[in-house]
Design brief:
The protein has one domain. 68% of the residues lie in helices and 0% in strands. It is built from 12 helices and no strands.
């Protein structure tokens, strides 16, 4: 099973001769996302999706895609972007509920003090306190859901990218065996991502305490973000590819797979297209068309009589003339 080393995944962006141009365009997209909320992020996700498909579907080395088809990149990005947003909706709902339970009741605190006259505790204050406790509980649940979603999201989104289908991210029976088959690879990818963020955070703190280099923080942040996103996509694409390969190798030999199984679903996208083997049975040779019958070599009989009648002058008139001439001589005599 072919695997890509971690050092290659971390250094692949700089192996491209045009790496500065491609990462600079990606940095501009990230910069624009601060002013335009959604569209630049779809382009960013589409660029990552092309990198993922190049590694998983085409089974090629990690390399930076070109920026020559911005419309196609946007089309490739809306599916994984929508799938990611849908995955985050449960955690977002819990966060909103926690905020409502903690902030809205607290806004009635001045009114409760006015009602109590500042001497006794008003019953409404107990409701505010209860709302805060429940809000903290909802916040804890939201953090737990966010943690689980963040852990499962890469496998689901990569599967959606590979399938080019929004709903594929929610077909757990297809991508769950891939995720569990290479669980160590996905965990390693998360550890590397966490390490990159930690090192970058320390570097930013060092720059902030200086008086000269702190002005470089915005430029370094945007440059690191462009590098971070492509490495993020390459790490989880490699983890997904290794898991899919393990699932394929675990396929039972000689047996038919059940409909809807993970291996059966992965076959069209993970395995390369196999050319049909030439058959050993010779195809029936078509019989040659029968040759047209030769014309008869005999020459047609000469029509002598017909030709004679056509050539010779009429004989009756000449006979009559020849017969009448002797009779006239006799009469004259």
């Amino acid at each position: 099973m072919k695997t890509t080393s971690l050092s290659s995944l971390l250094s692949f962006p700089f192996k491209d001769p045009a790496w500065f141009k491609k990462l600079f365009i990606l940095a501009l997209v990230i910069l624009i996302s601060g002013a335009i909320p959604v569209l630049p992020w779809i382009v960013l996700v589409g660029y990552m999706a092309r990198l993922i498909r190049r590694m998983v579907v085409d089974k090629s080395e990690a390399s930076l895609p070109e920026w020559d088809d911005l419309g196609g990149i946007f089309t490739d990005g809306w599916r994984p972007f929508a799938a990611s947003f849908t995955f985050m909706l449960p955690a977002l709902a819990f966060f909103i509920a926690a905020w409502l339970l903690m902030v809205v009741p607290a806004s009635f605190m001045p009114f409760s003090q006015m009602w109590s006259g500042g001497r006794n505790i008003h019953p409404g204050e107990f409701l505010i306190l209860a709302g805060n406790f429940v809000g903290i509980g909802f916040f804890a649940v939201a953090m737990l859901v966010m943690l689980v979603t963040t852990f499962l999201l890469p496998a689901a989104v990569v599967h959606s990218v590979v399938r080019q289908d929004y709903a594929a991210a929610f077909r757990f029976k297809e991508w769950w065996p891939i995720f569990t088959a290479n669980l160590a690879g996905f965990i390693l990818a998360y550890v590397v991502i966490f390490g990159m963020n930690f090192v970058f955070g320390v570097l930013i703190q060092i720059l902030f305490i200086t008086l000269i280099l702190c002005c470089l923080v915005p430029f370094i942040t945007i440059g690191f973000s462009s590098y971070f996103y492509v490495v993020y996509a390459a790490l989880f694409a490699e983890a997904y590819r290794a898991g899919a390969e393990k699932v394929r190798l675990a396929e039972p030999e000689g047996g038919k797979l059940p409909a809807g199984s993970a291996v059966e679903a992965l076959k069209p996208v993970v395995e390369p297209a196999v050319e049909p083997t030439p058959t050993l049975v010779q195809e029936p040779v078509s019989e040659p068309a029968p040759k047209p019958a030769r014309k008869s070599a005999r020459k047609p009989a000469k029509k002598v009589a017909a030709d004679a009648t056509l050539v010779q002058p009429p004989a009756q008139e000449s006979d009559q003339i020849s017969q009448s001439l002797p009779g006239e001589e006799e009469n004259h005599g």
